[in-house]
Amino acid sequence: MEPIDVKPRVILVTDGDQIARTALETAATRVGARVISRSAGNPTPLSGAEIGSLIHTALHDPVVVMLDDNGVGGKGRGEAAIEVLMKSRTLRIIGVLAVASNTQHTRGAKVDFSVDCHGHIVDAGVNKHGFRFRSKRKMVYGDTVDILRRYHKPLLIGIGDIGKMKGRDDVNHGCPITTEALKLIIELDPLAPCYHPQ
């Protein structure tokens, strides 16, 4: 008999400010996930190894982790942590939310699809406000996104600025856009049991 895969399921999110933290905590509760709140910060305050250790102590599964470069060009703290987590043999990364921002001089990363500011799945990239690009090129640009060009696995979803998007993802509305994106990652995990929303 094949051994059961007991690696924690992890969702990475390339945003770490306080609004994103509150939004992710709200959305995670709605889909039965758990946020590593200590991973929040501008930039990410913990190393990839430290975040990995916290994931293994989390009481719920899947675990949502925030990673942020705070606008630093090149590989900042958030991207360095992403690289460590992606290479880990003790975690199973089931998806990444690539958060769009207005940071200049980024190369961006190609996404599988995006969730726009109306909660629709679109076959294109989105901007910071969650509006889809007219071009069908599925790219998202943000300060903690470029590293994903090398680690596109297993599912990469574009999304606007979490908890914001001109009020459409506000916590007072239940963060519907972020909730939808997290739900999609969980539902599309081929190794997960059937998803049962709360």
Secondary-structure map:
Elements: E1 9-13, H1 18-31, E2 34-35, H2 48-57, E3 63-66, H3 77-87, E4 92-99, E5 109-110, E6 113-115, E7 121-122, E8 139-140, E9 156-159, H4 176-187
Parallel strand pairs: 1-3, 1-4, 2-3, 4-9, 6-9
Antiparallel strand pairs: 5-8, 6-7
Concise synopsis of the structure shown:
By secondary structure, this protein is α/β, with parallel strands linked by helices. It contains 4 helices and 9 strands; from the N terminus they run βαβαβαββββββα.
Describe this protein's structure.
There is one protein chain. The chain has 198 residues and is α/β, with parallel strands linked by helices. The protein has a single domain (9-187), classed as Rossmann fold (3-Layer(aba) Sandwich), CATH 3.40.50. 24% of the residues lie in helices and 16% in strands. It is built from 4 helices and 9 strands. The protein has helices at 18-31, 48-57, 77-87, 176-187, and strands at 9-13, 34-35, 63-66, 92-99, 109-110, 113-115, 121-122, 139-140, 156-159. It has a 7-stranded mixed β-sheet with strand order 2-3-1-4-9-6-7, sandwiched between helices. A two-stranded antiparallel sheet has the order 5-8. α1 crosses α4 and α2 (48-57) crosses α3. The protein is globular, with a radius of gyration of 15 Å.
